């Protein structure tokens, strides 16, 4: 029984370790100003990471439109900030810890800062991610350019309603009528000419006959 306290201590440590390994941490990434839905160009944007464990520090990362993760900063619980390239400061970001929040500040929001922002924590060789906070510019719909109505000139681009494509049947009918006219009027014209010529001959013969009679009476 002398070893029972040692067994009890080992059992307590084992239960404690199991409790730590089975513990789940909740993390939330959000805008500091809840009224923000879309950041504006050049806006100072503040994001907060809320976690149930503030002893392990927090990483901030960004997932861009192409699906690539970008490390931004690690904020320790002391707090100390370590930016990309193991730098203590950044020209584009600020990072600090305030009470239960790990804040990330985008000094001037630009197109290259668009993406989904996550905070994550490494605890007991486990990674815990927050849901992503999207930060994108508002989608602007550009209206299609209105094409001015083309100016038309009569006889060039605008079709004259009076100009119609001739019907082939109409053309054939006109040709037939033309040939019929030729066959009718040409003989009539020839007959008229013969009548005129006969009339002229008759008149001339009558004149000669009268002259002869007149000469005989004398």
Automatic annotation (TrEMBL):
Signal sequence, renumbered to the chain: 1-22
TM ranges: 182-203
GO biological process: cell surface receptor signaling pathway; cytotoxic T cell differentiation; T cell mediated immunity
Keywords: Adaptive immunity, Cell membrane, Disulfide bond, Glycoprotein, Immunity, Immunoglobulin domain, Lipoprotein, Membrane, Palmitate, Signal, Transmembrane, Transmembrane helix
Domain Ig-like: residue ranges: 42-130
Keyword Iron-sulfur (UniProt): no
Membrane topology classification: Single-pass type I membrane protein
InterPro entries: CD8_asu, Ig-like_dom, Ig-like_dom_sf, Ig-like_fold, Ig_V-set
PROSITE patterns for this protein: IG_LIKE
Localization, UniProt: Cell membrane
Protein's recorded name: T-cell surface glycoprotein CD8 alpha chain
